[in-house]
Amino acid sequence: MKTFQSNLSLWAIAALLAGGSLTACAQATTGSTAATSTASDPAKATLLTPLQQSVTKIKKLVATGDPDFDYSFQAKLHAQGVQDLLKQEIQSGKDTALIKMAKTMLPTVDADVTLLDGTMRQLKPTRPNQAYTQAQGRNIEAMSLKLQQTGSSDKLTSNLDKNFSTLLMDQRQDAIDMATTYLKYGNNATLKTYAQGLIDKSTQQIAQIKATIK
User: Fold this and answer.
1) Domain boundary assignment for the chain
2) Distance between CA 60 and CA 55 in Å, rounded?
3) What does the alpha-carbon distance between residue 32 and residue 78 come to, in Å, rounded to a whole number?
4) Of 153 and 147, the one with more pLDDT
5) Better-scored residue on pLDDT, 177 or 6
6) CA distance 60 to 13
7) What does the buried/exposed string (b/e) look like for 119-145 if buried means 16 or more CB atoms within 10 Å of the residue's CB?
8) Which of 22, 44, 84, 149 could hold 156 in an S-S bridge, CB 3.0 to 4.6 Å?
9) What is the reported pTM?
10) What residue stretches are annotated with the DUF305 domain (predicted)?
11) Predicted pLDDT of residue 14
12) Residue 180: which of 201, 199, 193, 158 has the closest Cα?
């Protein structure tokens, strides 16, 4: 009788483990299916890919710890990501209001990239600040995770214009977070002016997108 009860206990444990494995497999399969769907749908992939590439490049940067030097590189790569996003909407979008917004934003972003490129060439890392590196590192990891979750969920649809709105709002909020962190630690006057202006512009742009998609 004890042997039978012991076997029942072992079977129960095995069933629980099997159930957990099946759940994990189901979750993995669901995530894999969503990722495959994103990769095969141009309305998602053409917008998501340039942003993912931008964040990947930012993560690969070797931090010096100098807020001015590091932010100039980080902000430039981040701005290049939104450049590509805007160009995709202009090229493939159908919503006239969103296309107009993208066309209005693009020259400003182009100018930002030029400004950042010129500024970073004048800088040399001189004052490492671990607090900045850690804070900005958290922002970058959050950006990366957000894009991964967006790509593996049903947040994006087969409507390119809606996906553009979703991704642009997230990208603008990420820009605000990075700029806000820089302003706490940065010293360069040009970059501080850029960062504050970016916060103001991005806040307005998010409000504009929300009003457009109502």
Assistant:
1) 1-40, 41-212
2) 9
3) 27
4) 147
5) 177
6) 44
7) bbeebeeeeebeebbebbeebbeebee
8) 44
9) 0.80
10) 129-211
11) 40
12) 199
